[in-house]
């Protein structure tokens, strides 16, 4: 396997796209690596004589991936700009544990099932294990204390019971330390159950908790946790909407709270022959309501297909984006654009005749474009390149949105009840406006 490619870096507000060979030896001061694009050539395992497989992938840099989801250096895929080889819009195929952002509201895909699942139960378990938060049990604590010869079995702070079993371990699910932190998995799950408000229709179950946190340390509880025995525990039972029970096809999405707000929403959308899509948005016509001014009235659609569950952006004002957690292999001639902070970059894998000159031309053209159109946003508009055998991945700096104040004014008129416009205007997350 051979590799070549390039990367995207940033120094202050200056974003640079370059091939690895062009940037060799010149590192700029304070340079942050944001993303990488790679050409991956895999030789045929059968014969050297067969043509190798060539793929292109894009991924967030290791540095940026380690940052918080809200960091401006994280890489997001822009759903609206996904295009196929004929330049038609393509919906994004949702993966488990994806983080989607509608306007500034984040959703985590907690689970889904469609007819043709690409994953085996083992793979699903591995994935859950990766996502689950590790917790200690009273048994673990006891063993540790025995080594220090001061052992007393910690009791559950709800029922005072001291037993801890594989089925119902006594755990510390929050930041509370010492013996006060222990609680039975079932005691916790039952307690959260009493705080749950449910709304149910034939196709949709919405669950709401005003708080989903420890009352003492205020730490939000995870939904999945794991003990040392590598068993995964789910704090919330998911019941499917009645119309979806037979086929068993559904998606579970959790809306992630803003800071200083520990409320939780979980939506279970059930698919049936009659019901194959759901609309999400701020308007009453949307089935999954999201009350935030950054969300359009009918913002996005969740669509069921036997091969997968997809999201389509419905020309929303602030867009629908997906956090890039894993490398993304780019299909040839398809267009993908990524958002980093306020910058949007587009990538298209195309056939090519002279990689180097073509590439330099592109960079020059798009530098020009950015200067001319500082606030608007464009996909790439490339002519088809001539024949030849080599491929080239183009990277295009498509646009940056500048000013933050203006866009807030435009949506103030359509604001929903109970929002504080001043507070919203201070929010710096909502930088890119899609037109
Ligand atoms: Zn208990
Ligand atoms: Zn606590």
UniProtKB/TrEMBL annotation:
GO-annotated molecular function: zinc ion binding
Alphabetized CDD domains for the sequence: FHA (cd00060), RING_CH-C4HC3_MARCH (cd16495)
Segments of skewed composition (Acidic residues): 401-435
Region (Disordered) location: 376-435
Residue ranges of every copy of the RING-CH-type domain listed in the record: 148-224
Transmembrane segments: none
Residue ranges occupied by any FHA domain in the UniProt entry: 278-322
UniProt-listed InterPro entries: FHA_dom (IPR000253), SMAD_FHA_dom_sf (IPR008984), Znf_RING-CH (IPR011016), Znf_RING/FYVE/PHD (IPR013083)
Keywords assigned by UniProt, alphabetized: Metal-binding, Zinc, Zinc-finger
The protein, known as: Uncharacterized protein
């Amino acid at each position: 396997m051979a590799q070549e490619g390039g990367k995207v870096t940033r120094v202050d507000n200056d974003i640079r796209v370059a091939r690895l060979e062009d940037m060799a030896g010149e590192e700029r001061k304070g340079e942050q690596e944001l993303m990488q694009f790679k050409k991956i050539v895999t030789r045929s395992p059968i014969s050297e004589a067969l043509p190798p497989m060539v793929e292109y992938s894009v991924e967030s840099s290791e540095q940026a991936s380690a940052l918080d989801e809200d960091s401006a250096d994280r890489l997001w895929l822009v759903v609206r700009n996904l295009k196929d080889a004929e330049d038609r819009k393509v919906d994004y195929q949702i993966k488990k544990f994806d983080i989607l952002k509608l306007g500034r509201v984040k959703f985590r895909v907690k689970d889904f099932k469609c007819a043709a699942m690409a994953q085996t139960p083992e793979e699903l378990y591995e994935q859950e294990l990766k996502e689950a938060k590790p917790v200690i049990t009273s048994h673990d604590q006891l063993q540790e204390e025995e080594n220090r010869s001061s052992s007393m079995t910690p009791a559950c702070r709800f029922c005072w019971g001291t037993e801890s079993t594989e089925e119902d371990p006594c755990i510390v699910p929050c930041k509370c330390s010492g013996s006060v932190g222990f609680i039975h998995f079932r005691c916790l799950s039952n307690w959260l159950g009493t705080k749950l408000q449910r709304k149910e229709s034939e196709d949709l179950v919405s669950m709401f908790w005003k708080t989903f946190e420890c009352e003492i340390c205020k730490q939000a509880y995870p939904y999945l946790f794991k003990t040392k025995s590598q068993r995964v525990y789910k704090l919330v039972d998911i019941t499917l909407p009645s119309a979806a029970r037979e086929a068993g096809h559904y998606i579970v999405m959790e809306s992630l709270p803003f800071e200083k707000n520990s409320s939780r929403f979980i939506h279970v959308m059930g698919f049936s022959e009659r019901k194959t899509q759901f609309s999400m948005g701020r308007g009453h016509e949307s089935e999954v309501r999201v009350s935030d001014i950054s969300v359009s009235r009918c913002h996005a659609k969740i669509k069921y297909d036997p091969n997968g569950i997809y999201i389509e952006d419905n020309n929303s004002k602030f867009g629908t984006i997906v956090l890039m957690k894993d490398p993304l292999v780019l299909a040839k001639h398809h267009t993908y654009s990524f958002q980093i902070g306020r910058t949007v970059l587009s990538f298209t894998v195309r056939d090519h005749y002279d990689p180097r000159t073509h590439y330099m031309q592109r960079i020059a053209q798009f530098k020009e474009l950015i200067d001319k159109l500082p606030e608007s946003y464009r996909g790439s508009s490339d002519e088809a390149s001539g024949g030849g055998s080599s491929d080239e991945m183009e990277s295009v700096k498509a646009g940056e949105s500048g000013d933050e104040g203006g866009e807030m004014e435009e949506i103030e008129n359509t604001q929903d009840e109970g929002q504080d416009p001043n507070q919203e205007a201070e929010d710096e997350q909502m930088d890119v406006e899609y037109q």
